[in-house]
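U., I forgot to send this yesterday:
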Amino acid sequence: MTEKNPVRYSNNLPYLLLNDQPIDDHDADLLDRSEIARGIAEAIESSRTITPLVMAVDAGWGMGKSSLLRQIDRELADSPGIVPVHFNAWITDGERALESLIKSVLHKIDDNIVRRWFRTVTRQGPLLGVARAIVMIVARFLGGRRLVDDAWNALAGDAQSLHTVRSAIGDLLNDWVDRGIRSGTDRMLVVFIDDLDRCSHDVIIKICEAIKLYLDVPGLMFVISCDQSTLANSAAHATGAPGHEYLEKIIQVAYRVPPPDADQLGALIRGYARQARIESVIDETVVSILIARTGRNPRRIKRIFNSFVLEYRLDLAWQRSPLGSVQLVTAILLQHLYPAFYDLLLNDDSDVDVIGRFLDYAKFVQYELSPPERADPWWSMVRSLSESMGLPKPNSPTELDRLHGHVPTEFRNLARNNTFVALLHGIGGAEVRTVFQAQLLRRPLATEVPRVPETRMSDNLMLDGMRIIRVSDEPQSEGVPRLLESHGAEVTVFTSADESNPVILTVQPDVVISDITRGDDREAGFRQVENLRTAGYQGAIVF
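Result:
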């Protein structure tokens, strides 16, 4: 920062940043998942007698898994005998992940039961004579948390003792459950594990080992918030075996959080806009684009809104006429959701009205197949557009095709997208567009967007706004969704027909991409097609 180029910002900020904290208040749940939380909580409550059990709440990054876990916990708050345990795998010391999870569970057990367990473990452990006697006396004055820590530390590293601890943990938890039964309450520890899919391969495997080898005992229910495809990938990396087979030994039931439908996402976007105080600039065109282009991901929508708020504060040029909040929202959307078009604005010559040229091309495409009469102003616009590209002026419909080969690929991809065209029309006339592009050339947006490396299938691929559902029993190995999304498609992945068919029949996607074989079933894909056709889905299905 120098005197010649000082950083200036606005103290008069009407807009607010959005945080990324999970919510547990139903009133703050903009996706209205309270019924889902209540249903899962009821299933957990009714499962007391069939524990141990492991449930996965499965969804991708930013889809609200942590919030759903908190809502489930809140639904269970008044259930007698249910004791919650909260464990965030991501903030745990990786080397001690297994130990940390086990201790988190044991720390919830009554102190008197822990003391008895401690005496049993110590009696069978490596301590002898006077040392054991001292430990027994000291145990009287220590709380359960300290006893758990000391017992584990004393026995760590001794293979035979760890085997003893494994059995003793089972006895401890069985004793805890039995005491509850004798007092008239079916006890259960519900262990909520969050952010496991953010961890390293080693930590994921350590947590799975803790669940299966040490804590697979009655009275324990695990609810794991995760992206199962990430866990499967870690398992495959660590074991060399198929990841889904490893997870089947750990997880007994999985609930795949459904992506929000268009109405839910629209309500979410408007709710976020109210929280950020930007509802006046989030019109229906912007809402439609966010629904179509963000993968229906709430966290990504928040990032876009926060980028707008920060840019508005840091660069006063967006607060000076003829620019304003509407133009900045458009710039942010181009940067985040249409990066190739945004790059055209930065890389083209400053004396070319890129947006104006695109809008002319979009109008050309609109009437290309059925041109109006020669006297219509459309022909003047097309001739002017051709001339600006160094082409002869067309005088007949047969001469129109050559225009397509002289416009950027992104023009061809987006010209038929009416929502995108409406977004650019919202910037304003030629004078505003010139100032808009000059501002981006002079000072490109500072809130950077991670770019996914593009693997171009075809320069002519036009998937903007296309809704695609992918059905695959090995989602962890999927590169197809990412590739399609990089070309503008909205892709949702399911692992079975049972999961995907209700969504397909409701959403009516443009394309379903399905495996033929799933697991040992060599005709699963064919049966799914028959069921979908019988139920009325007439869209394209690709194997």
